[in-house]
Amino acid sequence: MTTTEPQLSPLAARLADVVGAARTGRITLDVLHAAAHKADTSLAGADDARTRLRAVCEELAEAGVVRLPRVGGTGWETLPRPALPRFVTRVGRPGLVPDPPDVQPATATAWHAELRWVPAFLRDEYPTPTERTLLDGVQELLAAGGADDVVPVQERSLRLTGDEKALGRMLRGRLFRDGRLTPDLLGIRRARWHPTTRHVGDGPITLVVENVATWESLADALPDDGTVGQVVWGMGNQLGVVLEALAEEPPEQLSYFGDLDAGGLEIARRGEMTAEALGLPALNPSTLYAWLLDEGEPQPARPFLGDVAELTAWLPDGLRGAAADLLRSDTRLAQEWIGREQLSETDLRDLR
Fold this sequence. Notes:
CATH topology of the largest domain: Dna Topoisomerase Vi A Subunit, Chain: A, domain 2
Order of helices and strands: HEHHEEEEHHEHHHEEEHEHEHEHEHHEH
CATH class of the largest domain: Alpha Beta
Radius of gyration: 27 Å
Helix content: 40-55%
Strand order of the largest sheet: 8-10-9-11-12
Distance between the termini: 80 Å
Number of domains: 3
CATH architecture of the largest domain: 3-Layer(aba) Sandwich
Largest sheet: 5 strands, mixed
């Protein structure tokens, strides 16, 4: 019996390949979303991106490639509009016997020799859509002759994944384990930026300070025979960027001192996670926080409506209660209460 194959649009045909190559019969929205944006870069930032993706899902359903979730059920992401299926289910194409594959998968990739480990990784470790996008991009890069130059990681990331930050997030992940991807293979380096740092002695601790005024006062006051060897300006909300730069030559120990308020503690909490992801030493609260609680006079602050216990968990046990009281009373302590005058009157050799 002769069967007429449904004619799919180019984007639908690409997603049909993805559906056919999937390891399971249920394909999630994030997989379809990543594949669609890779196949059609005009979707990125487009006002009608969801509308177009919904239309492609319906096209695949009408062609008998997938089955959409039950209308009105929980299988739909209803906001923002239009609703999108949280998953689609692969089905067989009608009219083909006996029992054909659901959809013919895309032609198997002949991976570059430098990527000979990839088939086993794809089979055994269930890559995320972003990881698969990166691997496809690296394959294309190597097939074209490899990297011609060493460039900042953000530039290479944009070319390989369509997201200037994606590669940086994966540099210390499983794709860069021994025998897999390397910065040399991709021709990448971190941008040549150095944090604002003052070396004050030979101590093992690198003290990162949220605000520039306190950084300067500490850098001037710290003795050269103390526990702190260098003081780094944390640049407020840019602490993650500072930590990335420090990761090039990791310090022995890391301490942090910022404002005792919701914003300052959130910066510290994110910094703790970033330091761990970068393989840096733990980002510990400086003993300056205890001094700040003794020295400072609380000032009014915006009400904090989040989880106080979660936000203060980074602090040591002895300080959490006092910090929580500040947040609950809608007050704050700026780190500038520990100023040049106070520092000049104190022995700072054992500061941590």
